[in-house]
Amino acid sequence: MDDDDGELRNPFPSPPSHYTKYTAHNLALLALYNERLPHHPNPVQHQVLSDQTDVPDWPLTQLEKPRIDWILEEPDAHYDVFGDRWFVKDKIPSLAELGGTQLYPEDPSVDRRPALLSILRSLLVTYSSLMSSVLAPPPTLSATEPPEWQGHVEWITVLAQNLMAAANDLRPVQARGNLELMMRRQLELKREETKALHTKCNVLEAKLKDLRASAQLVSNFSSARGTVDAVMTAASSVPSDATSVQQEEVLRWSEEIG
């Protein structure tokens, strides 16, 4: 009972029980069997693989992959999985193929807007007629014809089915348009991020340029100051009568450099 409850709570169906047969050993035996079969007189599996161990009792041909080319050769290529039928080429059936009354062109290359506008106008007119028939007095007991409102409701149902079917046919176009808009928005965001990075790099480059200029100025000032100190030291060693003149020249020269 617990296993049944667990199976019911599982949102996905369990895999088929024969999935355990797809082991590396069994697949190797299958490849060896297919290789020896054309050259062996007896197609019995155990005789073809008599020199092998752990040969299963069930046919190894069950492990063969399905022939996709055979499926594609069919006019309506399909396959069955867990009791459901799936078509290889997914196609949305039209309203006419589903048994309904289709009032717009089936060919998607034909412009459907005039037909859809006519359907919409017919829907509005029929709805107005339905309101009038609902306000009409009820039929007598001897009346055998169906009430007028019943025909209006049936026609409104047909018109609504055509509008919904035409809208469903445009779902792929809508999805493609949404995808294009999303990709364009992502491209715009990438361009904006790239532009912001370039702007930041330009700002940093300007700051580095200013720092280099400041460092060069400090270096030049330090070298000039060292030169002044050397000149002053040399001037101190000259006779006293020329010291004042040389000091004045050195100070004038340092002011010109500064």
TrEMBL record:
Single GO cellular component term: mediator complex
Pfam short name (any one): Med7
Primary role: Component of the Mediator complex, a coactivator involved in the regulated transcription of nearly all RNA polymerase II-dependent genes. Mediator functions as a bridge to convey information from gene-specific regulatory proteins to the basal RNA polymerase II transcription machinery.
Subunit structure: Component of the Mediator complex.
InterPro entries reported in the protein's UniProt record: Med7/Med21-like, Mediatior_Med7, Mediatior_Med7_sf
Matching Gene3D superfamilies: 6.10.140.1520, 6.10.140.200
UniProt keyword Amino-acid biosynthesis present: no
Alphabetically ordered keywords of this record: Activator, Nucleus, Transcription, Transcription regulation
Superkingdom assignment: Eukaryota
Compartment annotation: Nucleus
PANTHER family (UniProt xref): MEDIATOR OF RNA POLYMERASE II TRANSCRIPTION SUBUNIT 7 (PTHR21428:SF11)
A GO molecular-function descriptor: transcription coregulator activity
Protein name, as recorded: Mediator of RNA polymerase II transcription subunit 7
GO annotation, biological process: regulation of transcription by RNA polymerase II
Keyword Ligase: no
Family: Belongs to the Mediator complex subunit 7 family.
